[in-house]
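Hey, can you fold this one?
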Amino acid sequence: MPNRHFAKKPMSSISEQAEESEHSLKRTLSAYNLTSLGIGAIIGAGLFSITGLAAANNAGPAVTISFIIAAVGCAFAGLCYAEFASMIPVAGSAYTYSYATMGRFIAWVIGWDLVLEYAVGAATVSISWSRYLVKFLDLFHLHLPASFTMSPWDTATLADGTTVTGIVNLPAVFIVVMVSLLLIRGTKESAFFNNAIVVIKVSVVLVFIFLGWAYINTDNYVPYIPENTGTFGQYGWSGIFRAAAIIFFAYIGFDAVSTAAQEAKNPKRDMPIGILLSLGICTVLYILFAHVMTGLANYTEFKGQDGIAPVAVAIAHTPYAFMQKLVILAILGGYASVIMVMLLGQSRVFFSMSQDGFLPKVFSEVHPKFRTPWKSNALFCLFVSLFAAFVPARIVGEMTSIGTLFAFVLVCIGILVLRKTHPDLPRPFRTPLVPLIPILGVLTCFGMMASLPADTWIRLIAWMAVGVLIYYFYSRFHAKH
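Sure. Predicted structure:
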C-alpha cells in the first residue's frame, strides 16, 4: 500500500488539535514573547565572531551588503513559515506543515531532520557555552579544573605548559539541566527568562554600536568593496555572496518560533508577527553592528582571529576596554537562550509526532500542573547532557545548519503544494508573490546547503537512513492518519 506513505493529515484534525484542553499545551505567549523568542534564538555568539571573519576573508567592509543579502534569503523562508504558522497554529513547525501538504513519509523525514537540528544544535551550543564560561571566569581569576570542562577527546595546554586531557564537560551539562528544568516548569516562566536574556544581549549590541560609532575611522571603508584576489569568494562581488552564505547561519533560529504555535494566545495574528519582526529587528542590528565593527578596525586586522577575538580587535580602537567583558556576558546569555529555544522546539516537535502516533505516547504526555511535555523534556535533557558531556563540538558543528536549511526547503515547497491543493483555506497571513517567493526560498536555501562540506552531507544522509528504518519498522504501523 505505497500510497499510505503519502497520506496527508486532514486539516480538520489539525484544527481539533489546536483547541486548548487539559491534555494540550497551555496558551501563554503574546506577540512580544514570540518576537523575543525569535531574537533569543537568532542572536547567538555568531554575530561576534562570524562578522569579523567574513569581512577579513571574503567581503571586506561590504560585509554589510552580505548581511542584507542573507536577510533577503531568510525572508523568503520566513514569509512561508508565517503563512503556515497562521493557518496551522499547532506545535510541530515544519513537521506539521509537511504532514498537511506532502504526506506522512515526508512529514516523518522532516520531523526526524528537526531532531537533528534542535537536539544536536543544543548540545553543540552548550559545549560552546562552557568554553565561554571558562573565559569569563578567567577574567576574574576564577579557574575551573580544565579536565572537567572538556570531553575525553579534547586536550588543553595550561599556563605552565602541561597538557590536560578532558574527563567530562560539567558546565555544558549544568546549562542543559538548568534550561530543561525551566522548560518543565512552564512556557511562561521560560519566556520570562528568555526576555531577560534578550534584553541583556541586545543591550550589549546597542552599547557596542552607540559607543563605537564615535570612533569610526571612515578611511577603513576605502575601498568599500576590495578588489577580487583572483580567487572566487575572496573580495569583489563573489566575496560578498560567499560572505552572505557564511553569514546566513547567523540568522538561523526564527523557525523555532513556529514550534511554539500551540502555546501562543492568538497564533493566527501573533505567529507571523513573531517570525517576521524578530527577523527584521535582528537584520537591522546585524547591519549596524557590522558597519561599526569594520569602521573601528580595518578589515585586514581581523585575519587569523577566532572566538570573540574579532570584536576584541575592534574594541581595542576605543577607550572602552570593559566592553570585552560585556561581550562575553552577552555571548553566555545568547547561548543560554539559544539552548532554551532549541530544547523547546525539540520537545514540541516530538509532542506533535507522538500525538500522531509516529513516536511512543510518552513524548506527548502533559504535566497535570505545568501543562508542559515534561517527560519529553526530561528524556532530551538526559540525551543532550550526555552528548554535551562526552562529545567534542567540532564533530557536529555544521549538522545544525544543514538540518535547518533542509526544513526551510520543505516549508517553501509546502506553500506551493497547499496553494494548489487547498486554495480556499482561510489564510490570516498570505505569503506575497506566490509562486515566486517560495521558489526563490527553495533555490536560496538549497544553494546554501550545496556550499556545505561533503562530510556534512554524509552525516545528514546517515542520520536520515536511521530515521527511515525507524519509520518502516515502527512509525508507519502506529500512525493515526
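The chain has one domain: 31-478. Let me know if you want another pass with a different chain boundary.
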